[in-house]
Design brief:
Shape of chain A: elongated
Distance between the termini of chain B: 21 Å
Radius of gyration of chain A: 38 Å
Number of strands of chain A: 21
Mean pLDDT of chain B: 82
Shape of chain B: globular
Largest sheet of chain B: none
Helix content of chain B: over 70%
Structural class of chain B: mainly alpha
Mean pLDDT of chain A: 85
Radius of gyration of chain B: 21 Å
Largest interface: A-B, 58 and 54 residues
Number of helices of chain B: 10
Number of strands of chain B: 0
Structural class of chain A: alpha+beta
Oligomer: heterodimer
Number of helices of chain A: 11
Strand content of chain B: under 5%
Order of helices and strands of chain B: HHHHHHHHHH
Bound molecules: protoporphyrin IX containing FE
């Protein structure tokens, strides 16, 4: 019942031409193949199937840690899968090939259809078929109220039909919105793809942790991010300059430990503007002119003050990372590579470096084991630390993690464990060499994503038009009606009245067309309430 | 309030079960019902006549048996409406007890989504009563899904976490549930169509025999399309709303998180269905199979992704 066909195949009339260049012929045939509905269908399916591994296997763009874990768990399979892009499915050659072909196919099918549609919009509704009684809807009206073509045309126009009068015939068509909507929909798809492309070429983003306090402020440069990615058309120098300081972080928790509210207060220093204070939260990012700042997570950074055997102290504010339980148990390290430098000689003692690792529990339990927090807010804070002395291995040139010790140094015996202790705020731990570690307190930290996504407005607009077009395409219905006025029989201008014949043709599946036709006929004949009878007479 | 909601779910399952039995009685007793004159299109009347192929073979049943079948069917319809009312009560009391929209986890998602499916079914039933026999399949699906939700997915009420406290969340989730409910309902005529079409082509083996007393294939196929045509834009909107929300909450509109990936897959498959149906060279039963595959991907997103994968959406978990 639909009017949609596969794109027409080669017009047979062209056969007797001179020999066609086989390359051209091949190209033309491939193009036809590519732009057929059948190919679009197959490509759509390939696209759906190709997306599946992207959900089954961990993806670098989504969760790089899990990809690394996967490599550890499947050392044989992982590199081979990696080669075919299985961990970056959505950027892989084969995935891109499918959607690029699909969109080529799409453009190849939009263009001719747009041309045809513009033509159809310009054309007048076609002349009536000879035998209206062959149409799916047909009726004959005797003595209608609107008996001349112009009056009928006026009724139709009033109902927003596109109307032409040719002599004693009225042709009308409605529902161009269907094709318009369909084209709008498919064009919007292309716009969505463009928006995505813009975003990935010109966008950038970075993630980092921001600990509260002025001396932990961060300014927007590439080096300041733990992890950053810049689109191919973006240079490090293009990052807009601004600085953020975390002033305050508030978190409210329900008795069950579930968070009910987060709120971060920061000072923003942007060029060309006064320093200002701004607040943001999950779901309501901080929108700067040049980038958006999103709150992704939070935690506590314990302040650990180490006083070495020469009496010089340093304080670590390294954030401890959440271990993933719902009560904010955190683990981390405090590293003091410059400890125990002899103040007289200034000589560093590489085997006298100090580090601590262990857990921070915002609400520690009343009794041992002190390994898991009981609640995410700080009700009974404590650190459970292990001390190490020796060579931290930081000079070896291997960039170490700031969140974990280099295990190899411990395994090699270069870094020795010298004790463990549980500390509450204000408590001090005196080590065997007389040096001390004090747990001073904590500072909150937040995890941030800073992001510039230039294609987003286009994406939003295109999604809107996509939806509009889709609804037009699905719900509008193309249909035609014709009215033919015959002069009264018998030639007596006063005696008989003219006879009007009407026919209707739904051009797309349209179960309600019979009713609509009946109403139209009723409007023309002047007795609308009789719509039903007109239809039944028709059947 | 929370306990009341749980009780209402149990009652709703019971009433659906009784409605299902009543439908089964209708099936067992009745001849294919005469398609009333008000059937929407002629084609359908024709196909309806085709639907009575088996009647000459079957000895004409006593009239009161057919009348009893009709009665059983009507009762089943009303029982479904009662069950839907109880079901709605369960949804509302759950929301009141939680003091938020009842869409915070998988249990609530299924509870609300199935209700949407039933509500849409009642609308269909009201407008096109000749489809009533599909109710057997619908009530079966309801009993299975609700029982599964109650036994396997049930979680006590929890407030929403901050990532979910947003208007876009409400819009996103409500439309996703709405679309899923309609897709769920769409599977019923789709499966019925596949069986009935086989029956009308003369197949007499097992699943096709079930279709002997179903409404005509063409009407089932059209209903399948109407339901999908209706829910596809809603689903599209829901995905867009999700992207808008994800931009605000996670800093990216689309990140190929497993839930997002499967929403994409469902969207592409349903777009494929609409294409296939609009392409004359693709057979209608092929198109219908695509719609069923689409529903399987929706189910995969709802259950599979929550059980098998981890992602940002994992709070939607059990
Ligand atoms: C060569 C490529 C394509 C062709 C020839 C094509 C053609 C068509 C046609 C003729 C319709 C109208 C069907 C109708 O009105 O019932 C249609 C509808 C539709 N197209 Fe495409 N299309 C193509 C690509 C795509 C792509 C890539 C997508 C999306 C992923 C898409 C999504 C849709 C959807 C959702 C509809 C449903 C609207 C409706 O049924 O009216 N199309 N397409």
């Amino acid at each position: 019942m639909t009017t949609v066909d596969d794109r027409p195949s080669t017009p047979p009339a062209q056969a007797p031409r001179r020999r066609v260049n086989p390359v051209l012929a091949l190209l033309r045939n491939s193009w036809r193949q590519l732009t057929s509905m059948r190919t679009a269908l197959i490509l759509l399916f390939l696209l759906a199937v190709a997306a599946i591994p992207g959900s089954v296997l961990p993806q670098r763009g989504v969760n790089p840690e899990r990809v690394n874990q996967w490599f550890v768990d499947h050392p044989d399979l992982a590199p081979r899968l990696d080669q075919i892009g299985a961990f970056e499915v959505f950027g892989s050659v084969w995935f891109s090939a499918i959607y690029l072909l699909l969109f080529t196919s799409l453009i190849g099918c939009i263009l001719p259809r747009a041309r045809d549609h513009v033509r159809a919009l310009r054309m007048k509704p076609p002349a009536a078929p000879k035998r209206l009684e062959r149409l799916p809807q047909h009726t004959v009206l005797e003595a209608p109220a609107a008996a001349d073509p112009e009056a009928i045309a006026a009724v139709l126009r009033g109902r927003r039909w596109r109307v032409t009068v040719r002599g004693n015939e009225v042709s009308a068509e409605k529902g161009y919105l269907k094709e318009t909507g369909n084209l709008l929909f498919h064009v919007s798809l292309v716009a969505v793809l463009l928006g995505v492309a813009l975003g990935s070429w010109y966008g950038w983003h970075g993630n980092r942790i921001l600990v509260a306090g002025e001396d932990n402020a961060f300014c927007n440069t590439r080096q300041q991010y733990a992890e950053a990615s810049l689109g191919p058309r973006v240079d490090s120098a293009d990052l807009p300059p601004f600085c953020l300081t975390l002033e305050k972080f508030e978190a409210d928790y329900l008795p069950s430990g579930l968070a009910s509210r987060y709120w971060a207060t920061v000072t923003v220093d942007e060029p060309g503007g006064a320093v200002r204070t701004a607040g943001f939260s999950v779901n309501s990012p901080l929108r700067l002119g040049s980038a958006n700042v999103y709150l992704l997570g939070n935690g506590y950074a314990p302040l650990l003050k180490y006083t070495d055997k020469y009496g010089r102290s340093q304080t670590s504010e390294a954030p401890f990372l959440r271990t993933g339980d719902s009560n904010a148990t955190e683990e981390g390290v405090a590293i003091f590579p410059d400890a125990n430098v002899d103040p007289k000689t200034g000589a560093r003692a590489p085997d006298q470096q100090i580090a601590f690792d262990g857990l921070y529990l915002p609400t520690g339990p009343e009794s041992a084991p002190y390994v898991a927090s009981q609640y995410p807010a700080e009700r009974n804070p404590m650190v459970n630390l292990t001390a190490y002395r020796g060579n931290l291995g930081m000079d070896a040139g291997i960039p170490g993690s700031v969140y974990a010790l280099d295990r190899r140094q411990i395994d090699d015996g270069k870094l020795k464990e010298i004790g463990t202790k549980l500390l509450r705020p204000g408590e001090k731990w005196t080590l065997d060499d007389g040096s001390t570690l004090e747990f001073v307190g904590t500072k909150p930290y937040i995890t941030l994503a800073v992001r510039h996504a230039p294609g987003q407005t286009l994406l939003l607009v295109a999604s809107g038009t996509l939806l509009l077009g889709l609804m037009g395409s699905l719900f509008a219905r193309r249909r035609r009606v014709w009215f033919r006025v015959s002069p009264p029989e018998g030639g007596s201008p006063t005696g008989g009245s003219s006879l009007v014949e009407a026919g209707g043709l739904p051009r797309t599946e349209h179960p309600g067309f019979a009713d609509e036709f009946a109403q139209l006929v009723a409007a023309v004949s002047g007795d609308e309430p009789d719509a039903r009878r007109a239809r039944e007479g028709d059947e | 309030m929370s306990a009341l909601s749980d009780q209402l779910v149990t009652y709703a399952i019971l009433v659906y079960l009784i409605a299902m039995i009543s439908h089964a009685v209708e099936f067992a007793l009745g001849n294919a019902r005469k398609v009333p004159a008000a059937a929407p299109a002629r084609e359908l009347v024709g196909a309806g006549a085709g639907g009575t192929v088996d009647e000459p073979a079957a000895p004409p049943r006593p009239d009161h048996s057919a009348a009893r079948a009709v009665l059983a069917g009507r009762i089943a319809g009303w029982l479904t409406a009662v069950a839907a009312a109880v079901h709605l009560g369960a949804v509302i009391t759950r929301g009141v007890a939680a003091d938020r929209m009842p869409w915070g986890n998988m249990y609530e998602f299924v509870l609300t989504g199935t209700w949407i499916g039933v509500a849409a079914w009642l609308v269909v039933l009201w407008k096109q009563p000749w489809l009533r026999r599909l109710g057997l399949f619908l009530t079966l699906v309801m009993v299975l899904l609700l029982a599964f939700a109650e036994l396997k997915l049930y979680v006590p009420i929890e407030p929403l976490m901050p990532a979910l406290q947003s208007w876009w969340f409400i819009i996103h989730v409500s439309t996703i549930i709405f679309a899923s409910g309609l897709f769920l309902l769409g599977v019923v005529p789709a499966a019925a169509y596949l069986m009935r079409a086989g029956w009308e082509q003369g197949r007499r083996s097992f699943p096709y025999t079930l279709a002997r007393r179903l409404p005509a294939a063409a009407g089932l196929e059209r209903l399948t399309f109407t339901l999908h045509a209706f829910s596809f834009p809603i689903f599209t909107f829901a995905v867009i709303a999700g992207a808008i929300w994800a931009e605000a909450a996670w800093g990216r509109a689309w990140g190929w998180d497993p839930k997002e990936t499967w929403a994409f897959i469902s969207w592409v498959v349903y777009a494929g269905y609409l294409h296939a149906r609009a392409t004359p060279s693709v057979k209608r039963n092929v198109a219908t199979w695509i719609s069923i595959v689409g529903f399987l991907t929706v189910m995969m997103n709802l259950f599979g992704v929550n059980f098998f994968f981890t992602g940002l959406h994992s709070y939607a978990g059990v």
